[in-house]
Design goal:
It comes from Sphingobacterium litopenaei. It holds the Pfam family AhpC-TSA. InterPro entries: AhpC/TSA (IPR000866), Thioredoxin-like_sf (IPR036249), Thioredoxin_domain (IPR013766), Thioredoxin_ResA/DsbE_sf (IPR050553), TPR-like_helical_dom_sf (IPR011990), TPR_rpt (IPR019734). Keywords: Signal, TPR repeat. There is one protein chain. The protein is an alpha+beta fold. Among the domains are: 95 residues, no CATH class; 153 residues, Glutaredoxin, CATH 3.40.30.10. The chain is 58% helix and 8% strand. An eight-stranded mixed β-sheet has the order 1-8-7-4-5-6-2-3, covered by helices on one side. 30% of the residues are buried.
Length: 489
């Protein structure tokens, strides 16, 4: 799960670092937090705590609270937030605490609606150009609750109150999905269409006008288009599908591969079997093998029989492996793996020293990270390839957990899913830097994987993962086998 875009949006909204903080201030704090020694961090924390006793600006105090959290002083951050909320009841911190402690404690739509009305009465929605994401988060939840309870009128009423055009698809699409599950396609369609229109508005802005909001709005665009194409197909409106997808590809050519699944179906329905098969080839070569039955169907239709299909797939497999061999170069790096000593699920210490002489596959993950979880069947398949290879060790390093009882949750998750993984808890801070292993390695998104050679040198580092089991297995094999070879000088 990549968090760079999320951070960028939060920064844009001003809810992480208040606008009173200068760029220099932000840069200085970030530098110390990322690369400072423990002594430098403690000095900065002391400076910030001293400032809290003088400042009477709730926005600045919120900024300091966020800095303290970023620097690992969660308790001090929480304490400061509580003080500010009590002393400045109209502040953004007080608003946030109301949303967390009052609004989200409600269960029914009616109770949430009452809390929403109290929220905007006590903290009116600004009429300025200030980004109003905090209110849209709540509106999104409120609309979903009404939709889940079957109150379509109320759900649509509150959807119309969404403030931010770049964000409102996050409210529209979940409600549209609920309507679809309830069999109400007529109500769902306009919401999906509006989501597409909003994304296209930002995608087509002149480059100089595009910002983080544009990037965020465009992220879901392929999914919205594919969903609408699927609805049109089910309605028998095949003539509407191709123009929809071809327009999307023209507007977002860099995302063309994300439309391939919907595009192949539209081409097949239009009787353009060769082009449909070509789209599936693109999907296959990118590591998604689930459409192999469809490929066989199209291949047979084009050739009159399935003779030669296995050889055709074998050629594609060679292309896939070649593509993997070519693209893993972008993951190449060369840095020493920092020393570590972490606890496993049994409470036993596992150190880097104890793994000396092995090729290591480090997979940083968290129980809440869906891309991490989706990659696990593939990672298990990759690990199974090396079960009898004593020179290769997979380590699944649990990091960034949010719950206090994370160890119990992690153990339960691994046990329930019967994953034969060596799991380590990344919760031991380095006494010199105050960083956990993920931070020392510069991890800024998970899943993050590192392939380490027998000398303890990280040879490959990659963030994100496919969810296709066979592709992950192939990619991991190529990475591991590459690392097994002596490094060229």
């Amino acid at each position: 799960m990549n968090i760079k875009l999320t951070i960028a949006l939060v920064l844009t909204s001003g809810s992480l670092f208040a606008q009173t903080a200068t760029n220099h201030d932000v840069k200085r704090i970030n530098e110390v937090a990322e690369n400072g020694t423990l002594a430098q961090k403690e000095a900065l924390i002391s400076e910030l705590l001293t400032e809290t006793k003088k400042s009477k600006d709730p926005n600045r105090l919120e900024t300091i609270s966020n800095y303290l959290y970023y620097l690992g002083r969660e308790n001090s951050s929480d304490s400061l937030r509580n003080i500010v909320a009590k002393k400045y009841p109209k502040s953004q911190i007080a608003r946030s605490q109301y949303i967390t402690n009052v609004y989200y404690k409600q269960e029914s739509a009616q109770a949430k609606e009452k809390s929403w009305k109290q929220l905007i009465k006590q903290w009116p929605i600004p009429k300025t150009e200030e980004i109003k994401i905090a209110y849209d988060y709540v509106l999104g939840d409120l609309t979903r609750t009404f939709a889940n309870e079957g109150n379509k009128v109320k759900a649509l009423e509150y959807l119309d109150q969404m403030n931010e055009r770049f964000w409102r698809a996050q409210g529209y699409i979940p409600v549209a999905n609920t309507f679809l599950q309830q069999g109400d396609t007529i109500a769902a369609l306009p919401l999906i269409q509006k989501s597409i229109e909003d994304a296209e508005y930002y995608i087509t802005l002149p480059k100089e006008q595009q910002d983080n909001r544009s990037g965020f709005a465009a992220v879901g665009y392929p999914g919205y288009v594919s969903q609408l194409a699927d609805i049109y197909s089910k309605q028998g409106k095949h003539e509407d599908v191709l123009p929809l997808i071809e327009r999307a590809i023209a507007l977002a050519p860099n995302s063309a591969s994300n439309f391939s699944s919907a595009y192949f179906k539209a081409l097949q329905n239009a009787g353009r079997n060769l082009e449909a098969l070509q789209q599936l080839e693109l999907i296959y070569k990118k590591g998604t093998f689930t459409y192999k039955p469809n490929m066989k169907e199209l291949y047979t239709a084009l050739n009159g029989s399935d003779k030669g299909f296995d050889a055709y797939i074998a050629r594609l497999d060679k292309d896939v492996v070649k593509s993997i061999q070519e693209h893993i170069g972008q993951y190449a790096t060369s840095q020493a793996l920092p020393d570590f000593e972490l606890l496993n699920l049994k409470g036993e210490k596992v150190s880097l020293a104890s793994l000396k002489g092995k090729v290591l596959v480090l997979d940083f993950w968290a129980t809440w990270c869906q891309p991490c979880i989706r990659s696990f069947p593939g990672m298990k398949a990759a690990q199974d390839l090396y079960l009898n290879d004593k020179d290769v060790q997979f380590l699944f390093i649990n990091t960034w957990e949010r719950d206090k009882n994370y160890k119990e949750n992690v153990a339960k998750f691994i046990s329930t899913n019967k994953y034969p993984f060596q799991v380590l808890y990344d919760d031991q801070k380095d006494p010199e830097t105050g960083k956990v292993l993920a931070a020392k390695l510069g991890v800024n998104g998970i899943p993050a994987k590192f392939i380490v050679d027998k000398e303890g040198i990280i040879r490959y580092a990659l963030t994100g993962s496919s969810s296709d089991i066979d592709y992950i297995k192939l990619e991991m094999k190529e990475l591991i086998e590459s690392v097994k070879q002596p490094k060229k000088s």
